[in-house]
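User: quick one
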Amino acid sequence: MREIKKGVVPMKGSEVEEHTNKVYDSLEEYAKREGLDFVRYKTVAVGYLDITEEYQKGPVSQNFINKLKIAWNTGGVLASLGYHECEFCEGKNKATSGSEKMLRDEVNKIEYRFPQMIFHYIEEHGYQPPEDFVLFVMGLDKGIIK
Ligand SMILES: [Zn+2]
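Assistant: Done. Structure below.
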């Protein structure tokens, strides 16, 4: 059974995307009604691993991890969609995290969301993020991340 804490949205990637899409649906509707401009981004959730789903494993370059850390530390971090405990850690010292980051690919109109836990998943559990995300992060400059 998945334990859902009060006020917390489950952190499965598909659920994060669904939740975000619903929020944007209503924002878009509102914008249309009010005649406002609205740029719709495609939400892509990266690194919300769940014990019930297979995840991609493979090598990840230290360069990518460093860039992602810079991105994480630049600008704001979202208060989070929820608190999450690592489901892959055995024993008592499970990693936990409750924050996430959003990065926008302005060229392809993609909004990437990833949890702080992504670093733990990469470094401790061999997680390999999708190639599109890796390429996007590798192309980021320190100064342009919002
Ligand atoms: Zn873990």
